[in-house]
Amino acid sequence: MLSYALVAFFSVLLAVLLVPYDWSVKSVTGPVQGPPERLLSRRELTQYNGEEGSKGLYLAILGQVFDVQKGHKHYGPNGSYHFMAGRDVSLAFITGDFTESGLTDDVSSLPPLQMVALYDWLAFYQREYHIVGKLVGRFYDNTGQPTEALLQVEASLAEGQQMKAQSEAEKVRFPACNSEWSTGSGGRVWCSTKSGGVIRDWTGVPRKLFSPGSSGVRCVCVKDPSTAEEDSSLQRYSGCPPHAESCSVGDD
Ligand code: HEM
Fold first, then answer.
1. How crowded is residue 19: how many other Cβ atoms within 10 Å of its Cβ?
2. In terms of residue numbers, what domain contains 134?
3. pTM of this prediction?
4. 140: which strand partners?
5. Which residue, judged by its Cα, is nearest atom 13 of ligand 1?
């Protein structure tokens, strides 16, 4: 009985393995099937400003065009952000300068960290709205290829992302102190297992951190008081013992 069952099992297995299989569908590197990419000129895009007689409601950011009909209350003729409709005003997403001279797609003045913020807006549109195509002009050429301007923007973005990662890592290594100030007793800074938005299993000691490139000094919690002594960017609060978790702050 058992041998019949085994024979039946292996026959089925063999049959499954012998079924012809179309290996071509396994390819993941082949071209992605989808609608052909749509390229719009600036002039064409203006025809999608949501006003009476227009063809629809689109906007572009970093040269990517989105259908924002769903957000008609923001971008339609009575919306607060109607000035974004039918055009690419990438710079204004960061500057908040909504005057005509601020409504431009020239983002070359943005420093790297602001480029990261601009890409956050792009990610927002990719998440919330349907992409229509690309705008031929500053960021894409008439074959849909990225222009030199876009490559520069991407390089700046990469630099900004690296700076952001470094500052996040610094926040974890040196979380900000807790602080309070009152007219009666003056100021106090102290460390606990939750400060500067970082929850941890160590408390640390308060130190003044002088960061190169950033103006001013900030109070941070340092895990090990002895390493704190060796690091020239860290300084003790005057009158505060090296291992104290809390320091009074006078004129520091
Ligand atoms: C750089 C400055 C700003 C930019 C670029 C900006 C941009 C935008 C955009 C594009 C939308 C529509 C998002 C969507 O499609 O759903 C929006 C929505 C909104 N914004 Fe702003 N905004 C700015 C500043 C502000 C400020 C300062 C306020 C308030 C004081 C504000 C209040 C709002 C509100 C209330 C909404 C509507 C949210 C909703 O109903 O879903 N914005 N903003």
1. 6
2. 39-168
3. 0.76
4. 136, 146
5. 74
